[in-house]
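fyi for ur records
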Amino acid sequence: MKSRLRKLYAHDRQFAWNARIDHVRTGQGLRRCIRLRVWGAGKNSRMLQVDLLSRAARSAWGDPAATDGAYPEPKDVRAVIDYALGQGWQPDEIGGNFPLSGARHARELTLSDFEVTDLLQLAERSTSTREPAPS
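which gave:
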């Protein structure tokens, strides 16, 4: 399925962004995690990427992910863009990406419904380094 690119106008330019919903296992159960990607000068420009963990709490229904409908709103994307520009992101540069990590940026980049995390990247690394099951 092709992901939808959304538009946001800020800093006298148009940004394109998409958000992919995923889930990660934590000590609090399965949690919703969103991979947010933003481009500021077309598809070949330097991409901003950040993983956002939903702050939804465990409910009577079990894992937070079972009932969590959290998805970034334009105000969240704008806050991420503003923060990244302050950290040196140059959206006009060609190629590559500008990652925001939980280890380096979670304390400073605060959003009401999300926190910056590295859990999705860690989960991806652990599954990509596993040896295939014997046939």
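The chain has three helices and six strands. thats all i got for now
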